[in-house]
Amino acid sequence: MTADHPAAPRRLVLASASPARLGLLRQAGIEPEVIVSGVDEDKVHAPTPAELALALAEAKAAHVAARPEASGALVVGCDSVLELDGRALGKPADAAEATARWKDMRGRVGILQTGHCVYDTETKRYESATASTVVRFGEPSDEEIAAYVASGEPLHVAGAFTLDGRSAPFVDGIDGDPGNVIGLSLPLLRRLLARLDVRITDLWTV
Q1: Is pLDDT of 3 > 60?
Q2: Which spans are transmembrane here (predicted)?
Q3: 33-34 vs 12-14, strand pairing mode
């Protein structure tokens, strides 16, 4: 295409129902399509939290990439788990688990592991990696934890917390990419795209 008629941006499909991941992409000038993978996460296993996050991301990307409606698109799959004491902690099953989780996490340090996989359905190539961010939790009181759990938010996010919601005051600091904790590392996404010979600027739609 000529400079007067630039090529249309590549289609990007987000294989996730996460509004946080969608928001991060939109803030970066990318308007993805959303196709939820439907992968049964309980059937995916790996020896470490980082490897589990990566295996889940790869499974989600591959599952969506195989669908006809994703033909010709770049498919991004992500999955996050909190690593604490070597355990992989995803979304809590219920309010009781979320409460126990926060009482265990407060005053401690965990690692938020987010697997990323980009699958190019045109070339059938994919690249994947895990981003890690250290999270230093504050010490919310039992009353603050109860109020947070009652909000319902921790039931919908990996590790029962997020940086862009009501739990932000309970996180003293992080070491690493904040976007990774929210759900998607844009710097890592750029590097994975580059390995597939795609510039992230080619995806800008706004």
Answers
A1: no
A2: none
A3: parallel
Which of 40, 79, 94, 177 is flagged as catalytic? 79
Clarify whether 79 is annotated catalytic: yes
Give the pTM. 0.93
User: Which pLDDT belongs to residue 206?
Assistant: 66
Question: What is residue 36's three-state secondary structure?
Answer: coil
- Phi then psi for residue 83, to 5 deg, are -95, 120
Long-range contacts of the stretch 90-93 (C-beta < 8 A, 24+)? 90/41, 90/158, 90/159, 91/155, 91/156, 91/157, 91/158, 91/160, 92/154, 92/155, 92/160
Structure token digits, residue 142: 């039992």
Start-to-end CA span in the chain (Å): 19
134: β partners: 111, 175
Give the number of other CB atoms < 10 A from CB of residue 4.
5
Q: Which amino acid is at 43?
A: K
Q: pLDDT tens digits for 22-36?
A: 999 999 999 999 999
**CA 125/CA 29 separation, integer angstroms:** 24
Q: 43 falls in which pLDDT band (50, 70, 90)?
A: very high
* Contact criterion met (CB below 8 Å) for 115 and 58: yes
Helices 95-105/142-151 angle, 10° precision: 140
